[in-house]
Amino acid sequence: MTESCTVNFSRETSLARIENIKPSDIGGKLSENQHNFGLLYLCCIILSIITYVADLILTIILLYFYYVQSQGLYFALTLTFVLISALCMSTVSLKWYIIDHDDPSIGRASLGQWVVRILFLLLQISPLLRYVDTLIYGIRSKVAASTDSNSKQLILYRRMLDEDANSSLLRLFHCFLHCAPQAVLQLVFLLSFVMYPEKRTLSINVAVIQAWTVFTSIVSIAWSLTSYHRSVRYARDDKDNIKWIGLLVAFCWQLMSALSRVLALSLLGAILPTWMGVVCAIHWGFMFIWLAIGQHQTAACSSRCEELLLSIALGLAYVLAFISPRDGPTRYVYLAYYLICFMENTGALVVWCVTNSSSNNPFLYYGAAGSQIVAFILAIVFLIIYYKFCHPSVTKRNKMISDDRRDYIENDKPCYSRTSYNFRTSS
C-alpha cells in the first residue's frame, strides 16, 4: 500500500491540458496510451452511464409512489438529497464550462454546444453530457489514429481524458450527496417496513422499488469510486494505468466496503435514528479535524479557507468511504480509517442485537448482522488483494521482473538494471 490516487478539487482535474503536450510526450506514456480507447475504456464509460441513469430513474419512480401514497416525510427526505446533489453538480459543471470557454487552448464552444449544455444543466443531469463528450472525443481520437494524424489524435485523446476526469469528479459529488444518503435512507425505510408490519403504510411494490434503489445506489457508490481512481491514473502522466483485473478487484473492494457501511448505519438508524445521526456527526467532525490539522491541500487549494472547505467536504465523504487526500503512503491511514469503521460498525451491531429479538424475525435478525460482518471482512480481503497483487505499481514491477528473466534466458546472461532500479525506488 505504497501509493494512492489523490483527490483534486481544483479545476485542474488532470494533466490533460493541451498546452502541456510536448513532442517528448509522444514517446512516453502517451504513446503507450494513445490507442487505449478500446473495449475496456468504452465499457467503463458505458457502465458509468448505466449506473448513473438507473440510479436516477429508480429514485424518480420512488418519488412518484411516495407522492401517490401520500408519504410526505419519505417524499421530502428523498427529494432533498436529489436536489442538493443535482444543484451542486450543475453549479460546478457550469463553472468549469465558463472557465473552459475562456481557455484559448481548448477553443470556444459554438452556440449549439451551449444550448445543449444549458439544457442538460437545467435538467440537472450534467454528468451525462460529460460522459457523452468523453465518448465523442474517444471515438474521434480512434478515427484520427486510423488516418495517421498523430498530432490531432493526441489532442483529442487528451481532451477525452480531461472530460473523463471531470465526469468522474462530478460522480463523486453524486456518490456522496445522493447515492450514499439514499442508500441509508431507503434501507432504513425498508427495514422499518419489514420489522413493524402493523405500522405499514406502503405497498409491497414500493418496498421492492426501495430494495432496488438501495442496490443500485450501493453499486453506483462502488463504481463511482473505482471509476474516479481509474480516470485519475489515465489522466496523470506520472501514474500507471489500472488493468481490467485491478478494476474488478477494486470494484469488489469498494462494493463490499460500501455495503458493510450502509448496512451498519441503516441497522442503527432503524432502531435509533437519532443516534445514527450523532454517530455520523461525530465521525464527520473527527475526520474534519484530522484533515484540517494534518492533511494540508496546498496543491488543490489556493487559500486556507479553501482547504477548510475541502476538509469539510472530505470529512462528510469519509462517513461512508475513504479517498486519499494526497499522494503518499496510505498503509497506516487505511488501517486507522477501517479500524474506526470497525468500531462504529461493531457498536451498531451490538445495538441491533440487544434491542431486537431473534424470535420476531430470525432471518432478518441474523441475516442483516451476518451480511454486515461478511461484507466488512470481504472488503478488507479485496483491499489486501488489490494492493498486494493488482495495484499498477505491483503489476509494473512484476512485468519488469518477468522481462528481466526473459532477457536472462534469451541472452544467457543476467540483466539487473531495471529490477534493481525498481526495487530502490519502491522501497
From TrEMBL:
The answer to keyword Ubl conjugation applying to this record is no
InterPro entries named in the record: XK-rel, XK-related_scramblase
Q: Where are the transmembrane segments?
A: 39-66, 73-94, 114-132, 169-196, 202-223, 244-264, 270-293, 305-323, 335-354, 363-387
Listed under GO biological process in this entry are: apoptotic process involved in development; engulfment of apoptotic cell; phosphatidylserine exposure on apoptotic cell surface
Which branch of life, at top level? Eukaryota
Q: How does it sit in the membrane?
A: Multi-pass membrane protein
Question: Could you tell me the keywords of this UniProt record?
Answer: Cell membrane, Membrane, Transmembrane, Transmembrane helix
**Does the keyword section mention Membrane?**
yes
Signal sequence interval, chain numbering: none
What subcellular compartments does it reside in? Cell membrane; Membrane
The terms describing its cellular component in GO are: plasma membrane
**Family, similarity comment:** Belongs to the XK family.
By what name is this protein known? Answer: XK-related protein
What species was this sequence derived from? Rhynchophorus ferrugineus (Red palm weevil)
